[in-house]
Write a structure and sequence with these properties.
binds S-adenosylmethionine, 18 helices, 18 strands, eight-stranded mixed sheet, three-stranded antiparallel sheet, 3 domains, Rossmann fold, 37% helix, alpha/beta
Length: 497
């Protein structure tokens, strides 16, 4: 009887690692072609299968077994892998001459930070239009949400990081690039088994612990906590999948992740979460989320990327559960909507939470919507936001006494009627980071245009006041609050603390 824990002896792990040499992202893409790769991203294998026709080398065997979920002849598997050991560990299953992989092992590489290795997960349940429901303890492979979290993570060298809900271990693989000690937790034993194998193959050392939320880390402190938790808001009556939902009511799990971080962030430490939250009819959503952060004493930035109405939301997750086209579809849909109605949920937000334990008496908390394209990896811009808080809080006197330099990526866009002498709108736009935009009037535009690090803000204001013929104090009263907001939004390359 094969085991289900995917565990290999140290020797067999080395033999498997050696067999995977050459099974890299680039090699697979070259073998299956760009169209094969694009089709796989749509969950279709035909294009890749056709590209591999006539090949019986190791790369083709591994791709068929682990990525295309195909049966491969036992002798071909024996020629490519430590087959008996993988059978014993429950990684492969054999039926006569046919061999099948029981998990997905695939190469991973990120152009963002160079993280690379191999990751182990369960096979996608929906390949080639299959409608299978995942098993309750299904271990998800790398998803768009995983990539988004990896991109929003602030990648500074730190001593200790926690990957909460590690799943296949993809966040730990990234953390290994800039963190000395990684603790990775999960409620799902099977996820820890996948993470252990994948991280072992990738040469990443992480302390893997079983348990819910912060339970496995007791009173430990971390410099960075990252999590893409099971944030789906679903009724208690639907079948549960550990990778996406919990037994918490509404968005209670997200709230626990955020509020619980206060006890686990070292001074200066950060929590970064990707997830969903409810828009309820009894309270503005931003006020509700700001309330979660308020109790932590941390600085916080919440960026809501999109909001779905209940129907869109439920349809996505019903399809994800393999219920599309089944008899239960309609009933489950109705129950889900009833649940939302009972909780007063009128929409579901999706986005990013970042908290920093800055140790401020009066923490800085911002909750906003920003659905527009951002420069990836956006973690750099998030780090700049938290760095800029101190500058944005300078006294007026200090702000005016500094020579500010507008960041080089800022460009000006003008809008107006064709042939008009003056534009109707002048917009300054960041080309990098969050790619924010701000509409400016003549006064603010004139001040910002002169911020090249030479004159202080006070000197510039004096000169612009003369040009537009208003008292300098009036101009300062008008411009300084808006200037301060731009400082907070990292529009300046230098000056300040
Ligand atoms: C959406 S997956 C994310 C996996 C991976 N970190 C990523 O970024 O792709 C959520 C993970 O959280 C785990 N999980 C579910 N409930 C949990 C809990 N209460 N505490 C810790 N982990 C949990 C699931 O088993 C799953 O592996």
């Amino acid at each position: 009887m094969p085991s289900d824990d995917l565990s290999l002896s140290d020797d067999d792990l080395v033999r498997l690692r050696t067999a995977l040499d050459g099974y890299t992202v680039d090699a697979v893409v070259e073998a299956i072609g760009d169209k094969g790769q694009a089709a796989l991203a749509r969950n279709h294998t035909v294009a890749a299968d056709r590209a591999l026709r006539g090949r019986d080398d190791t790369l083709a065997t591994l791709t068929r077994l682990f990525i295309l979920q195909q049966d491969v002849g036992w002798s071909a598997v024996q020629a490519s892998l430590p087959a008996e050991a993988l059978l014993e560990a429950g990684i492969l299953a054999r039926d006569g001459d046919a061999c099948r992989a029981r998990v997905d092992i695939r190469p991973y590489g990120s152009p963002d930070d160079g993280a690379d290795g191999w990751l182990v997960s369960d096979h996608a349940a929906t390949l080639d239009t299959a409608r299978g429901a995942p098993r309750p303890d299904h271990v998800l492979g790398v998803s768009p949400a995983s990539t988004t979290l990896a991109q929003l993570t602030m990648r500074r060298p730190v001593a200790r990081a926690l990957d909460l809900g590690t799943g296949c271990g993809v966040q730990a693989l990234h953390l290994a690039r800039h963190v000395d000690t990684i603790v990775a937790t999960d409620l799902n034993e099977r996820a820890l088994a996948c993470a252990r194998l994948g991280l072992g193959l990738s040469g990443v050392s992480a302390d893997l612990r079983l348990g819910s939320l912060y339970e496995p880390v007791a009173d430990e402190l971390y410099d960075l906590i990252v999590t893409n938790p099971p944030f789906v808001i679903s009724p208690p009556t639907t079948a549960k999948f550990t990778y996406r939902e919990s037994s918490f009511t509404g968005d209670g799990l997200m709230r626990s992740v955020v509020t619980g971080a206060a006890d686990h962030l070292a001074p200066g430490g950060a929590l970064q979460v990707l997830g969903n939250w409810a828009h309820t009819k009894d309270q503005p959503w931003d006020e509700r989320l700001a309330g979660w952060i308020a109790g932590t004493g941390c600085d916080g930035l919440v960026i809501e990327r999109e909001v779905l109405d209940p129907y869109e939301y439920v349809e996505i997750w019903l399809a994800d559960a393999g219920l599309a086209g089944t008899q239960e579809y309609r009933d489950t849909y109705e129950r889900w909507l009833d649940y939302f109605e009972t909780l007063g949920i009128v929409g579901v937000g999706m986005g990013w939470f970042t908290l920093v334990n800055a140790g401020r008496q009066d923490p800085d908390v911002r909750v906003e919507q920003w659905p527009h394209a951002v420069e990836q990896p956006v973690g750099t811009a998030l780090a700049q936001h938290f760095d800029a808080i101190a500058d944005a809080r300078l006294s007026d006197e200090d702000l005016l006494g500094l020579p500010w330099s507008l960041a080089e990526d800022v460009v000006q866009e003008t809008l107006g009627a064709p042939g008009a002498e003056d534009p109707t709108h002048i917009v300054l736009r960041q080309q990098r980071g969050l790619r924010r935009a701000v509409e400016v009037d003549t006064a603010l535009g004139g001040v910002l245009g002169a911020c090249d690090g030479d004159l202080t803000l006070g000197e510039i204001l004096g000169a612009v006041a003369q040009l537009v013929d208003v008292p300098a104090t009036d101009l300062a009263a008008d411009v300084v609050p808006r200037f301060r907001r731009l400082v907070a939004d990292a529009w300046f390359a230098s000056a300040g603390s």
